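hey so u asked for the seq, here:
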Amino acid sequence: MGNLAGAVLLVLTTSAFAKPAKTTPKAAAKVALSSAAAGTELTAYAPSTAPITLELISLRFAETDAKISTMKTAFRQFVRMDGSDVVQTVEGDVLFKKPDLLRLTHRIPEPQTVVSDGTWLWVYRNSTNQVIQSRLESWRKAEPLAQGLLDFGKSADLLTRYATAITTVSAPGADGHRTFTLTLKPKGSERKIEGAAFTLELKADTKYFFPGDATLRVGRAAIHSLFEGVRLNPAIPDDAFKFTPPADADLFKSPEPK
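ran it, structure tokens below
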């Protein structure tokens, strides 16, 4: 999404668990949304020849942010290391509700579920039948890359939190709309992540002004995230943001940071 977490959250939750797989992989848990309202599409703006400025982008981002109460989107993510032709691919779906409720379901490379209930962050790996439980705020503090976690719907804030520049603007397409790229760099105490300088590139167009294409470059890694089929304010059942570990699962509770 239009934030640092949107680019890195999916990678952070794919690290290996403590024990090898011991059972046949279970299917990822599904949330019934068939009877829920589908939500609305992103607001489409009319083509314009006005200059694309940070002030205009901030205004449009803020307009979309204000409309978000809940959100549903599919994602694809590609991770590549410098000097390597190997690309790690992650695909899945995201359900979100302000301020900090989240359900992330991985389909590829393997079923995995991440749930934030506002107090706890749960990560369930189906193939190993293992669960990691972390207090949400403690996890945020312990993971430098997670400082923006659950900042969905706060895209406009990025333009003040980070040093931001418009780095590309395309010519108008057949529909009269242009695409643009923002390059964001941290400033002050956020200048580095784990000792490595980083940049975040956000791409959007003048039709929707929604940063659904994000590339985080940190150290030797490039993490490219695409968010598609975005629906604003679908009716998501409360159970979507609750998680109960399977009775036979191995549960690992992360220690509280000192």
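The chain is about 15% helix and 35% strand. The domain at 4-15+53-253 is CATH 2.50.20.10 (outer membrane lipoprotein receptor (LolB), chain A).
lmk if thats what u needed
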